[in-house]
Amino acid sequence: MNPAAELLVDDPIWLILIKVVVIFAIPIVITILMIWAERRIIGRMQQRPGPNRAGPFGILQSLADALKLAFKEDIRPSMADKWVYFLAPILAAIPALLAMAVIPLGGEVTIFGERTVLQVAEVPAGVLVVLACASIGVYGILLAGWSSGSPYPLLGALRSAAQVISYEIAMGLAIVSVVFYAGSLSTSQIVEAQMQQGWFALLLAPAFLIYLVSMIGETNRAPFDLPEAESELVGGFHTEYSSLKFAMFFLAEYVNMVTVSALATTMFLGGWAAPWPLSQIGDGVLNTGWWPLLWFALKLGACLFLFIWVRAALPRFRYDQFMHLGWKVLVPAALGFFVVVAVIRVLRESEGVSPTHIMIVLAVLLVIVVAISFLFPDRAAPQDEGPPVSGSGYPLPPLDLKVPDVPVRRSVSATSEQKPAGIAGGTRRGATRSVGKADDSASSAPASSPKEGGDGTV
């Protein structure tokens, strides 16, 4: 049993309750601040002020929006499944809050005379707890779309579920590389391993980059915000929700952002440990007491800022591009890097293997990858072989189709004397059209007919 687990075992009930309340309040408070910060930062990036009316610098705008949602009418569709429709938002939000229980926010501290660590629970397989909580959230999305009794939420739920599951695979493979390199599934022991060996964001940089992309896709954030399709004017799986139920889905999205950012801080950025220059001050004095909570908050804020930056900088992906990136790029890359980490781990623990041998093996693997990329190049862009053919089997109109020119009608301006008496009260446009037609018919009539005399009599 590690030291963190030994201290948590002796925690009294009142201290556990305080930790539970705080660990549930932190994501909600961060959500309120995150909504405000996102709108302000994106506003500055787009050269506009953002919210600036409710409170100083608009900081109370998130609270005003929450009150507005609370007082909206709660509507339930007549075709909806009552209990599933009610439980789906809860099932989407609660697991994201539970995942924060195994994240270590700091080291050993003293709270009201009791020695403890800033963590609710120390589980030997803490990483699996976080992944399991993220997986349960998919059920909330699916049940919300199915229970609404409408086809559009159902389609949005299927898209969101496919998106979340696809990117959870790449995220899990990136985390497995960290677990294999650290030799433990415990979140606190992974932090201690980084304090001894260095940040895994540098040592396992490919896994870190894969995790960053996967966490944006797994949380349905821009540029991967694809619960709703381009051809639909609805919001996806939560289309039929309103009032507090919709607020629960909104809360679940931002709490998931906090959870995956906290996991990124723990797995790759050294957790609550101070960064390298500061960790050497006074023999690690900045890694004791309440200082680690500050370092954890700064790293968490940097990860959350990444969500805002990516949303403001990148355009939205098409769904096929998004799934191609997940299944054909991230998953193979994460699996291949895991094999490389496993080889390094085995060679490092073997006798008679030096770092030079490990570098030689990595160089050989790199040469093999480059050779494969040259042997199987990307397919060239298709040449222009004529007019495109519809892939659905429907005929296409000819590309050289020209619309015939419409002859311009001769306009005749009508005066007040030319207006017939029957349309004296009509508009000038109608009178002009009528007079023009009369003039055309009069001019096209022959001067005399066989039945008429020279003077026009029959």
UniProtKB/TrEMBL annotation:
Principal EC category: translocase
Q: Which UniProt keywords apply?
A: Cell membrane, Membrane, NAD, Oxidoreductase, Quinone, Translocase, Transmembrane, Transmembrane helix, Ubiquinone
Q: Where is the composition biased (Low complexity)?
A: 441-450
User: One of this protein's GO BP terms?
Assistant: aerobic respiration
Q: Which GO terms describe its cellular component?
A: plasma membrane
Domain of life (superkingdom): Bacteria
Q: Note down the stretches annotated as region Disordered.
A: 384-403, 410-458
Catalytic activities = a quinone + NADH + 5 H(+)(in) = a quinol + NAD(+) + 4 H(+)(out)
EC number(s) given by UniProt: 7.1.1.-
One of the record's GO molecular function terms: NADH dehydrogenase activity
Q: Quote the Pfam families the UniProt record gives.
A: NADHdh (PF00146)
What HAMAP family does UniProt report for this protein, alphabetically?
NDH1_NuoH
Question: So what does this one do?
Answer: NDH-1 shuttles electrons from NADH, via FMN and iron-sulfur (Fe-S) centers, to quinones in the respiratory chain. The immediate electron acceptor for the enzyme in this species is believed to be ubiquinone. Couples the redox reaction to proton translocation (for every two electrons transferred, four hydrogen ions are translocated across the cytoplasmic membrane), and thus conserves the redox energy in a proton gradient. This subunit may bind ubiquinone.
Subunit structure, per the record? NDH-1 is composed of 14 different subunits. Subunits NuoA, H, J, K, L, M, N constitute the membrane sector of the complex.
* Family to which this protein belongs: Belongs to the complex I subunit 1 family.
Q: Per its record, how is this protein called by name?
A: NADH-quinone oxidoreductase subunit H
